[in-house]
Amino acid sequence: MHTRIIRSLLLGAALPAVPLAAADESTAAQLGEIQVTATRLPEAVDRVPASVTVIRGEELRARGAVDLRSALSLVAGVEAPPGGDAGPASAVPSLWGLHEFDAFLLVVDGVPWGGAFNPSIPTLDLNDVERIEVLRGAAPVAYGATAFVGVIQVIHYPAGHAASQAQAGYGSYGSAIASGSAALPQLGGLRQSIAASGERRRFADHREQINNGKALYRGAAPLAGGALRIDADVTVQRAAPPSPAVAQGAALVTPLDANYNPADARIDEHKYHFVLGYTHETPLGELSTIASYAHSKVIDVRGFLRPDFNDPAAEPDAAGDNADYQRQDRGIIDSYFDTHFHLELPRNLDLVYGADLLYGSGKQTSTNGAYCAGGAAPHYGCAADQNEAVPQPTARRPVDEINGLDDRRAFFGEYLQLDWKPDARWDFLAGLRLNQTHERNTSTHVDTADSTNDTYAYASVNKTRLSGMAGASYRAWISGEDEAVVYVDWRNTFKPAAIDFGPDVPYPAVLAPETARSYEGGLKGRLLDDRLDYDASVFFLHFNNLVVPDAGGQLHNAGSELFKGFELEARYRLAPDLKLALNYSYHGTRIVAGEAPGDDGRQLALSPHSLASAGLLYAPPQGCYASVVANYVGNRFLDPANSAPAASYITVDATLGYRWRQYFAAVHGYNLSDRRDAVTNSEFGESSFYRLPARSVMGEVGVNF
Fold first, then answer.
1. Beta-sheet pairing, 34-35 with 165-171
2. Is residue 109 a contact partner of residue 16, using CB atoms and an 8 Å limit?
3. Which range among 204-208, 349-353, 501-505, 625-629 shows the weakest confidence by mean pLDDT?
4. Number of domains in the chain
5. What CA–CA distances, in Å, run from 260 to 312, 393, 681?
6. How far apart are CA 357 and CA 342, in angstroms?
7. Could you give the C-alpha distances from 246 to 69, 235, 438, in angstroms and in order?
8. Which of 29, 494, 617, 658 is 20 to 30 A from 169 (CA-CA)?
9. How far is CA 224 from CA 158, 275, 287, 655, 687, in A?
10. What is the pLDDT of residue 9?
11. Which domain holds residue 229?
12. 3-class secondary-structure state, position 123
């Protein structure tokens, strides 16, 4: 009955989840927090046989969370350090101890964001977010061959609803932001809302920057007895990347905030995205259909330092160069289509069955060459015509090679999912999916100095494979608002190898797909008259064919790895407007079949055993509000050989603000401990790492309407 109440509030397919503010208060109290990521259907988090965390949009805005790192800072076992090879607007989330850019699935309003290639984090918009849901582990039925260690779904307010506020801010290094969202006047049956934002972000590295503008329109209307959903969003972004820091052992020897990129370095992206959705009751169940199309144009210009860049004994090559550059033009098309039926059967059995298609087309042309970026001594050994304060633009350097890539992939699947609740205590969830993946890859290499080195390669691969999951939860204890729920689940999935869109000649053959099976169990619920929410889980993941770069940056399949550990997450309401959040996780990562003798038993690089966070959140509707969040990252290794240990560190974010009537003002501080540790490795350079951004502060004023 409660599921029907919640589903009746859905605006057709316009809502991937129900805003609790729109639900009846008694229903919300009985159901608790609602999620849709693990089940495709709105269901209470405490009933789902999986570990799911929901972060409310109101909390994100109160904490000034502007990126994935700050947004997910109070989720147990999750890291999301900003930056990486995709540029300063990106991030590299880590779940269950696996620090890989493509090991998780990013979903935005029910659509895989980045499609069949890599998560499109640089174009992710956290303006007007209603909630973020984090599912640990794969979603092998609902989303197929797309993720292993987790799903992060960002859900914006549905058409006709919005956060309904506008704000502007100014901060460190000349950074500035402005954003707003509003529900537009209803036109007949058409409900509408719009959100827009602009950002100019600057960093301690004066050459690193982000300039972007984003806008999202959402519409929903009744149509032919059903409900139509329309979304359209656009991102225009210009970014200048930092230089990765070169490591010698565990020490980062590149000077702090030094930028050795060519003068014209940039990562610019224009992305256009459109969604149509429709729901309608039929004799076969409630039909839900969604179709999306996205086109991205990327210009990527940057340099890559050679491993001996900061070695005082090293000298540039015969041409006086000690770094390499790329000028890349990339076009990506992402398309997603899903249609499924939801049929409510007797005995509280929900059946979801359907099919989906995820299609991606990626084309790139990269012109590469060499340049002198300085080194152990400023511009040591550079040729006279390169001895400039900022390395020369790539347009003034010779082109050594021209590389091309055309990769097209389609993930098609038919799936069936059963959710059975025989009584108020038990919940059984199981699903099976038949995956058919098709990929063809064409790569070219032109050597401008020696045509005998020119190459052309073509490869294609088709895979048909089952994936699935099964889980159960049991309310072992209920007392008023309090409860204890035991849950277990098993998941088995696979994913075609990622494309890194790097500067080098693409691999001549399509790599073997990555595969994984996982087991999870836990205890979650509420205590102390619903003042304490908790979730304690243990997990085991066996991973095969992990895709990793070699010393030259080429991707290849590695051996197999084991991931196991436990995660503890708790929130305690000290007072009506005061909450304490505490999280701890232990991740044991181990190579069990390595690529070389001695690899077995080693810990995965950049995978700390311990992660912890603590946050104190004070958010009354009027007057002073504040928050402080501390994150601990434990000891880890920077290299696969485990010969470069890195020390633990703590970052601190804080907010102090004041609300009066509909107005508010706040000061947000990020990385107040000013840690500049290595957090993400570069796949385009051996022993190269990206650091945490320096301490920054942002002042903000705004109005609710």
1. unpaired
2. yes
3. 501-505
4. 1
5. 17, 11, 17
6. 18
7. 23, 32, 38
8. 617
9. 20, 19, 13, 48, 59
10. 34
11. 2-704
12. helix
Nearest residue to 241 via CA among 258, 261, 270: 261
For the chain, what percentages of helix, strand and coil (3-state, to nearest 5) are there?
5, 55, 40
The residues with which 330 forms a beta bridge, in sequence order, are 298, 364
Euclidean distance between CA atoms 609 and 637, whole angstroms? 10
φ/ψ of 83, rounded to 5, equals: 90, -150
CA–CA distance from 587 to each of 103, 485, 547, 565 (Å)? 16, 23, 20, 5
pLDDT for 585 equals 97
Average pLDDT over residues 194-215: 96
β-pair type (245-248, 78-79): unpaired
Contact call for residues 27 and 166 (beta carbons, < 8 A): no
Tokens of residue 650, six digits: 């703590």
AA letter at 318: A
Give the tens place of pLDDT for each residue, 63-114.
999 899 999 999 999 999 999 999 999 999 999 998 888 889 999 999 999 8
Lowest-pLDDT choice from 374-388, 466-480, 630-644, 679-693: 374-388
Partnered with residue 466 across adjacent β-strands are 434
Q: How far apart are CA 58 and CA 66, in angstroms?
A: 13
Give the C-alpha distances (Å, rounded to integers) separating 86 from 102, 300, 473, 695: 12, 9, 39, 21
- Structure tokens belonging to residue 141: 């039925």
Q: How confident is the model at residue 450 (pLDDT cuts 50, 70, 90)?
A: confident
Q: Is 394 helix (H, G, I), strand (E, B) or coil?
A: helix
Confidence tier at 5 by pLDDT (50, 70, 90): very low
Three-class DSSP labels, 377-391: CCCCCCCHHHCCCCC
Q: How far apart are CA 60 and CA 49, in angstroms?
A: 26
Structural contact between residues 288 and 277, judged by C-beta atoms closer than 8 angstroms:
yes
pLDDT digits (tens, 9 = 90+) for 181-192: 999 999 999 999
pLDDT value at residue 18: 34
C-alpha span between 418 and 342 (Å, rounded)? 10
- Paired tokens of 142: 């609902």
pTM over 0.85: yes
Local confidence band at 506 (pLDDT 50, 70, 90 cut-offs): low
Run of H or E residues at 6: helix 2-8
Token couple for 75: 């989720």
User: What pLDDT score was predicted for residue 64?
Assistant: 95
Nearest-angstrom CA–CA distance, 568 and 572 = 13
Q: How far apart are CA 630 and CA 29, in angstroms?
A: 30
Question: Rounded to an integer, what distance in angstroms lies between the CA atom of residue 694 and that of residue 673?
Answer: 9
What are the residues whose beta carbons fall under 8 Å from the beta carbon of 35, sequence distance 6 or more?
17, 42, 43, 44, 45, 48, 52, 54, 133, 135
Quick check: 375 pLDDT over 70? no
Nearest in space to 471 (alpha carbons), one of 173, 140, 698: 140
Total Cβ atoms within 10 A of residue 449: 9
The length of the chain in residues reads 705
Q: Is the separation of the CB atoms in 81 and 692 below 8 Å? A: yes
pLDDT at 90: 95
Contacts of 626 (CB under 8 A, 6+ apart): 616, 618, 654, 655, 656, 657
Residue found under tokens 């301690």: 204
Does 627 score more than 80 pLDDT?
Answer: yes
The two beta strands, 426-447 and 455-479, are antiparallel
CATH number at residue 630: 2.40.170.20
Q: Token pair for residue 187?
A: 């036109």
